Amino acid sequence: FWIGLDWVGFAVSIIRQLIKITTTTSYHHHRHLVMASSSASSSAASASASASLGGTGVGTGVRRISQEMLHQRRSSPPPSPAKAVSRIASAPCRLHEQDPSLSPSPPSSKAPECYLPKADAVIGHRGLGSNLGPKSLDTLEGYFAGRIRENTMLSFKTAATCGADFVELDVQVTKDGVPVVWHDDWIHYKHFGEEEKVMTRTIREMTIAEFKQLSYMATVCPERPVVLMRKFDKKSDEFRPWVCRQEDELPTLETVLKGLPIYVGINLELKFEDEHTHVERKELEDRIAAIMACLDQHCSAGRKIVLSSFSPDACTIVSELNPVYPLMMLTDAGVIKYEDERRNSLEAAKKLAVDLKLAGVVLLSHVIPDASMLRDFAAQGLLFMSYGERNNDGAYSLNQLTMGMRGVIVDDVLGVHNAVSARAALSLA
C-alpha cells in the first residue's frame, strides 16, 4: 500500500510541477503607496530605500515620507489586469473539505485577499529553515548550524525549489535607513586571530556599508577575516562560530524583492528591539516608512506579500499607514511574559487584530487553541497561521491545516511539502 502511495504521490508531484498557472487577477496597485504629485516626492521615496552609505541616521527623506504616509495615504486605483505569470510549482489544491464555520467571514482587514497565501500553504522559515532549528535536520561539529545560511537568497530559492509557497524572512533597518534581512536582535562577530573578543552591534547602529562589508567578510570572502558568532544553546551564554555548509551574503530587502521568483510569496516579519530597549515612536515610524518605501519601489505586481510583527506598536503604526498588504499579529500567547499585556495572551492578540482591522494572527504551534477558538477567529473575519518547531511534524501540520490554518511556517520545508502532497494524492485517488 505504502509503495503504491509513494508512486501516486510521486506522480502527482510531477504533474503539479508541470502545471503552469495563468493568473489574470487584478492586483491592487502597490506602486504608489505614498501620495505624491511630483517627481520630487518619488525621488524622496527612492532615496529612502537606497540611502547613502555615510550613516548619519535615518534621512530626512524617510522622515518626510513617514509623515505623508501617516496623513495622506489613500487607496490606489486598480490597475489593468496583470500580465499572465507562468509558475512551475504546485497547483493550488485543497487537502480537505474544511468545516465551513472555520472559513473566515468577509475579512475586516483593509488588505485584499490576492496578497494572501493560498489555502494549505507551506511557508519556509527564514527560507529553508532557521539555523537554530531542530538538530535532527542537520549537524555540524556537534551542534546545529545549518545546511544553508538562513535569511539568504540561496536559502529562499532552495526553499522554493523544495515546494515552499511562501518564504518567511526578518527585516530590520540600518542606521542610514536601508531595510536588510536579519533575524537576531544583535550581530555577534569576531575578527580572525582574536580568540576572546566578540564584537556585538545592532542593525540600527550600522550603516548599510558596514553591514555589507561585514556580510562579505564573514560569508563569501575566501580568507574569512571575520567569523559570525551565535549562542546556539538557550541555556548557555557561550558563543560558538556560526558557520554553515553553504554560505551566501546577507541580503537587503531590495535584493530579495528583485531576485526571488515572483511566484514565491513573502512573509515579511518586521523586527524591532525587545521591550527593554526604549525606542521613540518617531524612530519606529521612520523605520517602518523605509520598509514601506522599499516595497513601494521594488515589489513586482503579482507578488504575494504578508506583513507580520510581534510588536503591537509596530502593528498600530503600519495599520495607520493603511498599507495595501495584509498585516498579521504574531504571538506566542504568553509562553514568554512581557510587560506589554497585548503580547501575553491569544485573546489580547485577537482583540488587537480586530481593533486594528488586521488580516489575522500568527500563532505559536505549541499553543494552538481548540477548534471553537478558531471558529471565533473566523467569525470575526480573521485568518490564522502558525509557526514553531512542532510544525516540522508533517502530521501535526496537516492537522492544523484541517482545522483551518491558512498556512504553516516550517523549517523542514521538503518534509512538510511531501506530507501535504501525499495527503493531496489521497484526496485525488
TrEMBL record:
Pfam families: GDPD. Keywords: Glycerol metabolism, Hydrolase. One of its GO terms (biological process) is glycerol metabolic process. Residues 120-420 form the GP-PDE domain. It is an enzyme of class 3 (hydrolase). InterPro entries: GDPD, GP_PDE_dom, PLC-like_Pdiesterase_TIM-brl. It catalyses: a sn-glycero-3-phosphodiester + H2O = an alcohol + sn-glycerol 3-phosphate + H(+). SUPFAM superfamilies: PLC-like phosphodiesterases. It comes from the Eukaryota. One of its GO terms (molecular function) is glycerophosphodiester phosphodiesterase activity. Its EC number is 3.1.4.46. PANTHER family: GLYCEROPHOSPHOCHOLINE PHOSPHODIESTERASE GPCPD1, GLYCEROPHOSPHORYL DIESTER PHOSPHODIESTERASE. This is glycerophosphodiester phosphodiesterase. The lineage of its organism: Eukaryota, Viridiplantae, Chlorophyta, Chloropicophyceae, Chloropicales.
